[in-house]
Amino acid sequence: MKVPLSWLREYVDVNIDVDELAHRLTMAGNEVDSIERFGHIENVVVGEVLHVSPHPNADRLRLVQVDDGDGVHEVVCGAPNVTEGQKIAYASIGAELFDAYSDEPGKTRKLRRSKIRGVESSGMVCSEKELGIGDDHDGILVLPKSSVIGTPIGDVLGDAVLDIELTPNRPDCLGVVGVARDVAALTGESLRMPTLEYEAGGPEVETLSKVTVVDGDLSPRYLGAVISGVKIGPSPSWLQERLLAIGERPINNIVDATNFVMFELGQPLHAFDYDKVADHHVIVRRAMKGEHLTTLDGVERKLDGDSLLISDPSGGIGLAGIMGGENTEISDTTVNIFLESANFNPQNNRRTAGMLGMRSEATLRFEKGLRAGLAEVGIKRCLRIIQLVAGGEIAPGLIDEWPGKGSEQEHVDLTRRDISRVMGVDYPSELVEATLRSLSFEIGSLDSGDSGDDGWRVSIPYWRSDISIPEDLVEELARIIGYDDLPATPLSGSVPRWEPGAKHAFRQKVIDALTAYGMKQTITYVAISDELEEKAPPPAPKSNGIRTVDGIKLDNPVSGQRATLRRSLRAPTLESAARNTRTWRGPVALFESGIVFGSQERDDDDPLPSQIERVTGVMTGPRNLSIWGSSEDDFDFFDAKGAVEHVLETLGLEAKFIPLEDSTYAQGGSAEVVTNDRKGTVLGSVGVVDDAIWERFDAESSAAVMFELDVEALYSLIGEKTRADNYAPYTRYPDSQRDLALVADSEMRVGDALRICTQNRLVKSASVFDVYEGGGLEEGKKSLGIRVTYQSDARTLTSEQVTRAEDQIVMRLERELGVTLRGQ
């Protein structure tokens, strides 16, 4: 909120330095983010015109003698209004003034000594335009007679604009009067409220127009007024200057009047062309689903059934609290006006504005919640301003539809015990009452009954929608009296030690395992866009009552890119990996552990979404940095599979990998991770990302591999019994390695062969070192090379013992998988 100091001074005397004012406001909760200063020009001071005489060589020029406190200077001046005895703005040589003859906004020129028609001019007597404070260049700027000669012009005409960063609960300070009220309380000055009186005449307003509020839950109060015979034109300079100082563009006197009152009092208003409203009947209702309205910015808006519409019998004429309709816009030909001042439901206003992407100063105020009484004050003030700047006759009375009358809280009871409980200090009763009255609260005594705890009944004023409980009033006392005056009380008592829960420790164990594997953790938003999720759809629905088909929409998303709760981590993790490939040519190995959401197959009385914890990892690019002696091969399926195996090994679990059909993975390049038991619990998946899917993310690497693990499923198997990191001694006996050259069906899973090998009690490990399909083999066959390591913890194995174990393995492979030794 921008607050010009000159505007602020209309309502309260400010007798302290602007920096001190900013400090006090900040300490009272209204943080002043910056101070912009205007009108402070070097080498321009207050001067007095001592003598005026004709120019000897020009009829339209005059010679003016000016006293600036340091001496008398002769200036050549062409202004028709210069006379002796005036206090004026005198610019000496070297002053940087605005160029009054240039069409380029903000252009300046340095004043130099010069001769004008043969007479040397030692400076300039300035106009408003040359000082940059107005557009008048027809004559010089005449200062008040009380101005002191030699005073810098910035001290007389300069202005400062406070840029205040308001907290969400203070919509009253979204008006200059609200800030002035705080300033009055902080400085002990009196508040001067703006005048609301205006002259009315002609027929009563009820005979000229009609208002029907259909949906009172969305419009608790709606007021209307009619002004006849207005003259549309530019606003007077004082009004334009007020708006320009806060960054608003003047439009015309009617629109400027409504904007002025909004920034003055915090109440948004809107003016309709009265003659364009069908039957002069305003209807406040919900829009019909699919109904269209073209707003003032020329955009046709498609509305839903929850948007509040201002309409007439023929259709919509405005979006309530957001923007008016193009069909009732004030134009140069407008003569009669219907003025709206209303109170709209803040949640509905915020939802509609967010849905349509229409943020405005009006929605900013309505969505914070305004009290119904402010609408009446706002419309009366606006009628006075319109009559002042545009003339016209105001119909007596106001149309006042108030469906929500009596629904607002009227008072809050505050006791001395409340103050002591919250602040830890006892303020004197006189100080409490004086502070609350300085903020314009009306207070009365509160009967304490038998409790003996005296207090006050405080009426909630029409401008304070944030006051509802005693703590709100205690906050008012603290911020006005000053937080610095609160006694410092050291903390006492013991701080309990935080112990992580079992599930937290389990989650961290999974994260640590992946980090140890060389991957980096990422964290993304839980709310994403439908477009992102569609790039890598969630896995197909599984059992456990979880449906991942329908996304869960947020009622009030911060943006369209954060409108849906994610159903999997696939798309966000792939997006993170792809983004890294665009700025990095080395290995990218990322994972995220987080919550995904699904809708529950439950009764209607329990509609909450389910939350499932998953971990998803993506690897892409070269496996190693490009340095001498390192492999520059890209990540492949086995790297992702190795990450999964590392996690399972850390948790003390065994699993097998079986072929999987999943649209995100390449055909024939993915596997499902299941427990190595009869139950076969699904733990996750791993595979090569399908090329078409990977291309959707605009990555600058050729391929990616990905894995997913269901942390909930892992925890259900392990629970609190995560494997401890116990010491295990190395065996003292050597190992022995043998290679098996096997021929198997092409469809046979290599994992099954490895499982049979490792189930032998003398086998320490088994791994595949070669897979071949092609010439020299029967069709539908493949050759496998498996390296088996034999070792015993009790003795050195003999050749015969190793051979016997190998024969046992080969027999099982032949019997269970139909595998034969190559060459047989």
Walk me through this protein's architecture.
- The protein folds into six domains: 2-39 and 160-187, Phenylalanyl-tRNA Synthetase, Chain B, domain 1 (2-Layer Sandwich); 44-157, OB fold (Dihydrolipoamide Acetyltransferase, E2P) (Beta Barrel), CATH 2.40.50; 205-401, Phenylalanyl-tRNA Synthetase, Chain B, domain 3 (3-Layer(bba) Sandwich), CATH 3.50.40.10; 411-484, Phenylalanyl-tRNA Synthetase, Chain B, domain 1, CATH 3.30.56.10; 502-718, BirA Bifunctional Protein, domain 2 (2-Layer Sandwich); 736-821, Ferrodoxin-fold anticodon-binding domain (Alpha-Beta Plaits, 2-Layer Sandwich), CATH 3.30.70.
- The longest helix is centred in the middle third of the chain and has 19 residues, at 372-390.
- The model is unreliable at 543-549 (pLDDT under 50).
- The protein contains 21 helices and 43 strands.
- A hairpin with an 8-residue loop joins strand 27 (442-446) and strand 28 (455-459).
- It has 824 residues and is an alpha+beta fold.
Given the helix and strand composition, which structural class is it? alpha+beta
Average pLDDT confidence is 90
In angstroms, what separates the terminal alpha carbons? 88 Å
Tell me the domain tally.
6
The CATH architecture classification of the largest domain is: 2-Layer Sandwich
Q: What portion of the residues fall into strands of 2 or more residues?
A: 25-35%
Per DSSP, the total helix count is 21
- Compute the gyration radius: what is it? 40 Å
Query: How many β-strand stretches?
Result: 43
Please mark out the parts with pLDDT under 50 across 5 or more consecutive residues, or reply none.
543-549
Largest sheet: 8 strands, mixed
The percentage helix is: 25-40%
Annotated CATH homologous superfamily of the largest domain:
Bira Bifunctional Protein, Domain 2
CATH topology of the largest domain: BirA Bifunctional Protein, domain 2
Overall spatial form: elongated
* CATH class placement of the largest domain: Alpha Beta
